[in-house]
Amino acid sequence: MKTNHKYFIFTAIAGIVFFGSCSTFDKASVHGFNSGYYKMNLEKKERTVYVHVKEEEIEVYKTEKNVDDNGFVYIPVILSDSLLKTPLQFKKQGLDIDITGVPLKFRASVYGLPSQLISEFNAALYAGWRHDNYKIVRKTDPLGNRFDKIINRGYDIGFFAGPGITQISSFSTQNIGVNEYSGMIMQAGIAGFLETDLASFGIAVGYDYLLNRDRNIWIYHNKPWFGLIVGIALN
Fold this sequence. Notes:
Order of helices and strands: HEEEEEEEEEEE
Structural class: mainly beta
Number of domains: 1
Strand order of the largest sheet: 5-7-8-9-10-11
Number of strands: 11
Radius of gyration: 24 Å
Helix content: under 10%
Oligomer: single chain
Largest sheet: 6 strands, antiparallel, barrel
Number of helices: 1
């Protein structure tokens, strides 16, 4: 068994960063419909508004030079008989920074060897430009009471990079390397996400760079792969 204590230290640090980010779950709903500035179709023109989200209602304020403190729309989000016309739609876009992982990678056939679908530890920092659309629609419960529901749809495209491990074996070195071990890699690529309030799911295309001298015989060194990528919001 070929080992290197530097790989284990590097992997441990990456694991702490990745799993430690799970403690941000309670705060990671930043992609939900929260108080802030949005674009809204108003008076037949898309305008910037400030939205104040409360537990029982949503207040929308005009923004010309400053925020107008006279809210012009009040949207109840609990059971209501409000005469408010729906749907209403709000738009927002901005920089998206996530901690991501690629749970599945597909490596195409090389040198006549079979293609592979693998699942190995990896983590990466992702940055992209995100577009969100929030639609408020009127619903009716089984008792006939009406209420307003917020539906969020979003997407973004960006780049990711980070560490991971991969299995080095005689198969992946065309029988040149005789030892089997977990090798340290750096991965990078481009990804596109479909978004929910908390998590992001998408498709990635990337490359792996093996961080030791066996990169010269590893058949997947700097070869493209396709994968499923997931993310947890940080910003």
